[in-house]
Amino acid sequence: MTPNIARVALPVPLDKTFDYLIKAGSFPVVGGRVKVPFGRQQLVGIVIEITDKSDFPIAQLKPIYTVIDQAPLWTSPLFSLLSWASHYYQYPLGDTLANSMPGLLRKGRAASTGTLKYWAITEAGRDQPITALKRAPRQVQVLNILRNGNRRHEALLAEEVSSATLKTLVDKGWITELQEKPRLVDWHKHFAITEEKPRLNEEQALTIATINANPEFGCYLLEGVTGSGKTEVYLNALEPILAAGKQALILVPEIGLTPQTINRFRRRFNVPLETVHSGLNDTERLSSWLAGRDNQAGIIIGTRSALFTPFHNLGIIIVDEEHDASYKQQDSLRYHARDLAVMRANKENIPIVLGSATPALESLHNAKTGKYHHLHLTRRAGNAQSARHGVLDVKGLYLDAGLSAPLIAQMRKHLTAGNQVILFLNRRGFSPAMICHECGWLAECDRCDAYYTLHQQSGELRCHHCGTQRPIMHQCNSCGSTQLNAVGVGTEQLEQQLAILFPEYKTVRIDRDSTRRKGSLEDYLEAIKNNEYQILIGTQMLAKGHHFPNVTLVSLIDVDSALFSNDFRASERLAQLFIQVAGRAGRASKPGEVLLQTHHPEHALLQALLHKGYDNFADNALIERKEALLPPYTHLALFRSEANNSDHVCQLLQQIRGIFESSPLFNQDIFIMGPNPAPLARRAGRYRWQLLLQAPDRKTLQRMLAIAKPAIQLLPLAKKVRWSIDVEPQDLT
Length: 733
Ligand code: ADP
Ligand code: ZN
Ligand code: ZN
Known about the structure:
This protein is an alpha/beta fold. It has 23 helices and 32 strands.
């Protein structure tokens, strides 16, 4: 019997596939999309298997509406990676596949480059004397562009002139719209190195030789202080790959922050380069995806989700700043792009380089146990030198918007010398709470167990957890007093106070509030480069990937909140931030200085970090993790649940706990913690609880989850309560 049933994965939160009848004359392919009826909707799904058997009576099966693809969307290593991710992160296959593709493909758009629209000049337009158009300079501009043989892409021209201008010209019959398919390029044929390369130092040369020695799978952890020439190593590692006509994928934490890096790749090779990031619109996203698949890009640089780009012939993966927390997706498919990238390199059988000045403890552990090759760059390229650093003991000192007098004095010294200063504070807003001076009442969000953050500029109280906003109140809700004070310092308050302390210098604040507008971050970075601002206030955002040569003083003004956090990764993050900023301050002729404000200068971690460096810190931190049975020595899965009914939320996790305890795999090496209320116990009116499962190795964790999940899904409460599994969680809130 000919197979006439397609097993389809659909973007629905269910761990199963669905069977559909194949209609005569339109045969689907495995790995291709089909449109099918599902309840009252039509959904786009992926064919996983073609078969002649179904667990359902054939008569009950519905036929496929339309077959969208004639060929599979993914190569087999990438498809195999996606199915692996679906199992590993306990996320339904249909949802995983849908998540990994551009929005337009999810909606059923054809997976091929469509036609592009162009403007072209007509004969009449060409003959038109420009002098007759003196009063219409925009029209002249368009005619001139198009006369010079430039066929302008629609989007490009629309950026320069209004649609009214274009319409006028069309109405006059002087320009016209054309549609064409873009020509495919064979970049490999013209491959060349387009700039002079610096002479490599010995360490760089050795590193590159190691990476390029083997074109097959190998994972290289490249640990190199900032400015030691890691990017130069990436460029050299890419060279033979591109020369052989293979493509490269480069992952970066945040694209807006890396324009210089992208330009270095553009300058070095005459190879088409595409970027993939959250700022792309749907069309651009599809176009980058296709450029990878159809070999129209030699290099793709992108954030987390770029990992899912298909390639015609991928030759290498680079993960820059591999320790960065943004590589972990915090919702839906909760994957870690660095870990999945290693898995992809394995499946594609190609090398992967993980680069960082401050590798994640997980990666260091993998290097120490021999899973990764550990490569080092210990010297700064060129002749830059490291910054001096010190701690400021602020115990008992008066703090003016968080700044101690010695820090203010130090700032003045650097500013007077014509240099720039960065202050790091990881807290947005004016102040993190408002308190009644008479009775101690705190303004609290009605919907969350959290205080309102005061945003003075916008005259609002905002909840940073659910987004609720309300006007600033002037009376205490509890006693009616009008003495309401702000407690604690946020970036907005710091900015205000700096204007008073340093009226002769300009301050700029870089955080999520101030850079919300598209392009504003780039504008600020440019202005900082041009010395338009002297004092920079930043959250973590400002630490990534920049080099500001005129910044000679960097201060982390509140180190204590990280030292005493209940998140076991907080100290690792602080150490990474410190090393990152210390590496960026100053340059050869202007040595930098880094100052940490703390009430606990004797803290062992700070001491290790300051006097012995990151590796020593990391060694100690790994010993601590081992003793405390924390990752990377154990493996975690975090169950989160939330609902309006607190009892249900806790009961569901209690039942899940019961399922694990009765598992045949349960033994004394497996720990189950909870159910406990989440650190933020109520958000947007919903109660939140957690259950943490800890296993000694990955395999046991995976097997326990795989056995338990179907049982969990059968629990009646699992349908009433919103719940999720986070495998290897990065954030325990
Ligand atoms: P990282 O990525 O580790 O921060 P980069 O590759 O950006 O380091 O190198 C830092 C600076 O040193 C850059 O300006 C780069 O052009 C320069 N550089 C790197 N390698 C060399 C070299 N071998 N000789 C001279 N300059 C180099
Ligand atoms: Zn809230
Ligand atoms: Zn009060």
